[in-house]
Amino acid sequence: MTAYQALQTALQALRLNPLRSFLTILGIVIGVASIVTVFAIGKGAQLRLEEQMRSIGSNVLMITPGAVQQGSIRLKAGTKLTMTEGDVQAIIDQIPEIQTAAGSVAGTAQVIHESKNWNTTINGTTTAHFMVRDWQLSSGRYFMASEEASAGKVVILGSAVARELFAPDDDPIGAQVRIMQVPLEVIGVLDRKGPAQDDVAFVPMTTAKLRFLGSASGISRDAVAYIVAKVASDAQMAGASNEIEGLLRQRHRISAGQAGDFKVQDPAAAIEAQQGAIRTVALLLFAIASVSLLVGGISIMNVMIVSVTERTREIGIRRALGGRMRDIRMQFLCEALVLCLLGGAVGVVGGITLSMTVARMAGWITAIDIKAISLAVGFSAVTGVIFGFYPAHMASKLNPIEALKVE
Q1: CA angle, residues 296, 302, 305, in degrees to nearest 5
Q2: What are residue 305's phi and psi, to 5 degrees?
Q3: Helix (H) or strand (E) holding 125
């Protein structure tokens, strides 16, 4: 018996019991679909974190306001702006490991261009902010020193804002937009960095404080909402963080043992920790999905043993007509393999469908990984070989004379 003939015989046997065949492969279907879905969601989460890493920039420290005390009441972190532009300059001047730093203030407002409008984040900052985060422009230029000093009416748009306000063929550079009734000239458009980073409009710090955010939020002339600082190298991150903390505690007159009114964070380290957690969860879910494959394999072995018992006379006739032991073994092994591969194919389709459904309903990013599909199908094939071998071997060992006696 050739492999092709064994495959034809296996398919014919499975068609005779379609319901039993379907119930047999159900465990394989669930296992493979689970593996494909877990990998798709895990890959999507990894892509999102990598996108966040790129948007943050390399070797960046972020200093944000901490919790502050008002009388006997301790307010939550970020309630009060405790840092100033003077802190930014002190970090640049007094910490050698820092290449540059920038403070920012932020709020939300409607950006209007002709008949189109878009609600977005308005970020008041300096050109150094783009240098810290390694953000490049797709067109235009950054702020000039004179514009930062004189509250110039200029704006740099994130790619998402530019896309919402301008037609694809229009050049935003030189166009005029309005924010809170203040006309601003578009001088630059940023490269795409990711959904969260593209939906923002940048104006000079002085412009934000004098014309927008100061009047709306009570931001003082010198206050900043947060500071980003670029460290020269990875090896200097920990030392720079400690030096910034010591410097700001001294400037803010915070005594030893007293909680600071700011936090120095390494966003990249936090994202890497998230990646580790995602990998751990994905591994756990993969292990759970593998149990489904194991259960499916055991189910296939049980059904194949029953099938051998039911078809004992058929085996005897095949042996009597010249069938060799290896032919019988190949026949039943092919049946188990076809069951598992069929279950794997259905599971792949189910896993892709489930991944797309999760992405659409939950708003998560999912990415179908060819390696995951290959791994899942490979596992199902191995499961068929392992759990189908014993019934196939048992069938090949039947005595043809005794088998022919079975009614």
Answers
A1: 140
A2: -65, -40
A3: strand 116-125
Query: Please, which pLDDT band fits residue 71 given cuts at 50, 70 and 90?
Result: very low
Q: Sign of torsion, CA 345 43 121 154?
A: negative
Structure tokens, 327: 């032919």
Among the listed residues 326, 336, 328, the one whose alpha carbon sits nearest the alpha carbon of residue 384: 336
Q: Is the pLDDT of residue 21 over 90?
A: no
The answer, as to whether pTM is greater than 0.70, is: no
- Statement: residue 220 has pLDDT above 80: no
Q: How far apart are CA 284 and CA 166, in angstroms?
A: 46
Query: Residue 215: how many CB atoms within 10 A of its CB?
Result: 11
Burial of 44: CB neighbours in 10 Å, binned 0-12, 13-18, 19+: buried
Alpha carbon 114 to its chain's center: 37
Look at phi and psi of residue 114 and say left if phi exceeds 0, alpha if psi is from -120 to 50, else beta: left
More confident residue, 34 or 117: 117
pLDDT at 406 over 70: no
pLDDT of residue 174: 93
Residue 356 CB coordination number (10 Å): 14
Task: Mention every residue, 6+ apart, whose C-beta is less than 8 A from residue 174.
Answer: 185, 186
Helices 237-251 and 85-94 cross at an angle (nearest 10°) of 130
Q: Residues, the chain, total?
A: 407
Provide the CB-side half-sphere exposure for 108 (13 A, CA).
4
Provide the token pair at 180.
């809170």
What DSSP character marks residue 314? H
| SS3 category, 349 | helix
Q: How far is CA 329 from the centre of its chain?
A: 46
Alpha carbon distance 369, 354 (integer Å): 14
Give the list of residues 6+ apart from residue 273 with CB closer than 8 angstroms, or none: none
The DSSP code for 168 is T
Name residues whose C-beta falls within 8 Å of residue 285's C-beta, 6 or more positions apart in sequence.
Answer: 34, 38, 42
Residue 405's pLDDT is what?
Answer: 64
Non-local (6+) Cβ contacts of 349 within 8 A are: none
Smallest Cα–Cα separation from 47: which of 294, 285, 359, 283?
359
Instruction: DSSP letter for 208, please.
Output: I
Neighbouring residues of 228: CB distance < 8 A, sequence distance ≥ 6 = 60, 61, 62, 63, 101, 102, 104, 129, 132, 133
* Amino acid identity for residue 400 in this structure: P
